[in-house]
Structure formats: C-alpha cells, structure tokens
Amino acid sequence: MATIWRPPYRETTLSPAVTSLHPDVILLDWSSTDRIALGQLEQLRAWTRAPVVVLSDNDEVGAMVDAFDHGAYGYVTKPCAISELAARLHAAYRRRPPRPPVDPVIDAASFSVDIGAQTVTRDGQRVELTATEWKLLEVLLRHRGTTVSSRTLLCAVWGPAYTHEAHYVRIYLHRLRQKLERDPNHPRHLVT
C-alpha cells in the first residue's frame, strides 16, 4: 500500500502474509468480545513494524491501555467520525518507521539468509529448514539487533494459544544453532 488515503486498500486475514503486503499502516478492527485481540496485536508486532491503529467498540480505559501496552500506535472507539479515524491513520502514516530493504540477503560469518527466496546457506551449502524453523529464523532476522521475548516468538511462530510453551523456543533455537552456528555450544548469532 503506497499511501493510506488512496486505494488500493487491502483487507486481509491476520497471518504472516501481512508482512508480504508491506503495509504502511494497519487498521485492526476489534470487537469488545474479541478475547484474542491482544494476542493478535502481539503477532502483528512480531511480523511487521508498521504502526497499528486499533478500532474498537470497547471504550474502557483499561482496554485502551492494554492495546498501547501491546504495541498499538493509536486507539479509536466506535462509533467515531470518519474524519477522526482518517486523522489518526494519517498521523500513524507520517510517523511510520522507514521500510527495511525489500527481501534483503543477510550474511553472517558462517551462514547467509535470503529472506525473499527463503533460502539459507552455510559455508556455501544449502541448509534445509523446517517451516517452523524458517518462521522462527525470519522473525529473529526481522528484529535483528534487538531482544525478542519468548512470548513474542511463540505468538508469531505458533500463535497466541502457545504463549506459555517456552520450551518450544528453546528446542527450535537449539535446532537452528545446530544447523547454522559453527560452534552451536557457543553461538555467535542465535544468542539467548
């Protein structure tokens, strides 16, 4: 989406596919009965850096605070004036972070990752990753240089229902280290 005020607007289901759309701003419509809304917001934060404006029929201060605590940029309650919603979206658009390079290739000391082609090579040889290993690596690469919590990783890779399964992250990081690090017992790139 090039801008937020001109088409093409795209409606999509919440999935890692949001990342491939490269949105400038995301409008997340919540119902007050939506019990997984905060998990959805955490997933979005793991998948994209685009600002998220929440549109909700819940006007309680606690709901708004929770949304901001989980990464929302703005919060608008329904019913609302279209001009207010448009103004909030424009403000989010103006303050959006710069876009990362499209489908970058990331080179580490012993391995290289082509995010666009979804390929990994180590010492010149292609490394086969499972779908889950790839999702985990991709989330880590899109947030490289920052600490990503186990909860965020679980939500982004396995979904909000798995946020208490911290051992999944340990198991899959171990597998990634075995495949990618020169010395898996002393990792340089996949560090906890």
UniProtKB/TrEMBL annotation:
<keyword id="KW-0597">Phosphoprotein</keyword>
<dbReference type="InterPro" id="IPR001867">
    <property type="entry name" value="OmpR/PhoB-type_DNA-bd"/>
</dbReference>
<feature type="domain" description="OmpR/PhoB-type">
    <location>
        <begin position="103"/>
        <end position="192"/>
    </location>
</feature>
<protein>
    <submittedName>
        <fullName>Winged helix-turn-helix domain-containing protein</fullName>
    </submittedName>
</protein>
<dbReference type="InterPro" id="IPR039420">
    <property type="entry name" value="WalR-like"/>
</dbReference>
<keyword id="KW-0238">DNA-binding</keyword>
<dbReference type="InterPro" id="IPR001789">
    <property type="entry name" value="Sig_transdc_resp-reg_receiver"/>
</dbReference>
<dbReference type="Pfam" id="PF00072">
    <property type="entry name" value="Response_reg"/>
</dbReference>
<dbReference type="Pfam" id="PF00486">
    <property type="entry name" value="Trans_reg_C"/>
</dbReference>
<dbReference type="InterPro" id="IPR036388">
    <property type="entry name" value="WH-like_DNA-bd_sf"/>
</dbReference>
<feature type="DNA-binding region" description="OmpR/PhoB-type">
    <location>
        <begin position="103"/>
        <end position="192"/>
    </location>
</feature>
<dbReference type="InterPro" id="IPR011006">
    <property type="entry name" value="CheY-like_superfamily"/>
</dbReference>
<feature type="domain" description="Response regulatory">
    <location>
        <begin position="1"/>
        <end position="93"/>
    </location>
</feature>
<feature type="modified residue" description="4-aspartylphosphate">
    <location>
        <position position="29"/>
    </location>
</feature>
<dbReference type="InterPro" id="IPR016032">
    <property type="entry name" value="Sig_transdc_resp-reg_C-effctor"/>
</dbReference>
